[in-house]
Give the backbone structure.
Amino acid sequence: MPRKLTFSLLFFLVLSSLASGARLKDLINIEGVRVNKLIGYGIVVGLNGTGDGDQTKFTVQSVVNMLERFGIKVDRRQVKLKNAAAVMVTAELPPFVRQGQRLDVTVSSIGDAKSLQGGTLLLTPLRGPDGKVYALAQGPVSLGGFSAAGAGGSVQKNHPTVGRIPGGAIVEQTVPVSINQKDLLKLSFRETDFTTVARAADVINAYLNGPYARPLDGRTIALVVPEKYRQNVVRLLAEIGDLAVNPDIPARVVIDERTGTVVMGENVRISKVAVAHGNLSVQIRETPQVSQPPPFSTGETVVTPQTEIVAREEAARIVVIEEGVSIGELVRALNAVGATPRDLIAIFQAIKAAGALQAELIIM
């Protein structure tokens, strides 16, 4: 009986039909409507002896500078911190966010702190690429894990030097984005494909009853805002975002050699080719033999290994794959030769080298 390709082998059969498709909003981004990255440098305090060590000079300098701003004069040579850690704070500023709204932030240690468990992030300004402060972050750090150590061992769950503060940042400044005043929109697809862009333009024009959408390249559509949607572009984007578009799926075979995972698209085709598959197994067995000298002799006891080698090679099975076979037929043919996931990787590479695989082969 042929073996099934199971366990580490995973087939994603990506099926598509003209009757159904993806929503346009799931395929595109609107030019000018984007997330902005924020970053800041802060201090987490209140740690239980798991903070930065004495060798992390910038943590000491940061704490001394902070205390001096509060009017407290200290000698930095006498400052020894174990309950504080220097961190980088990152967040994303979504489009159309308003002042006073809250953002989630991620706190990551940049020193030699062992854990941020139980710590509190002090007030930290978050800046954009232009250097302006867009949000202020502060609050208790949540790790979702822990670490503990004793004299003879330690235990750790998850990553103790990175945490999050849900809703830990308050927006102080927004990035102005004006949508309703636009007369021309550019829809940018997340994947480059001329067929998908052309299909999307046809679907939009059919819905709007006019030549309003025009493909610019394999990734962009220029959309002229119809007269009835002027000053109400949000309504236009909401309506066309629900339109069903049938994206074209590229013919690809993706192989992850580390896990033995194989992913194939629906459009993968194989030209006529013969596949021969056979396994060679070698078993080596070592048996020690003890040789002892006669009594009262000057000889020594010697241990000599005896090696037994057994080589077994399975007979190769040849399967002829007809031209233009589908994925299901390909899987059945490879099952017929008893291919394991690791064998399948080598088979696909050999078929590609023979010029019979009509698809892009990607090895991760």
Observations:
- The CA atoms of residues 15 and 266 lie 6 Å apart.
- Residues 252-282+315-363 form one domain.
- The helical segments are 57-69, 194-208, 233-241, 327-336, 341-353.
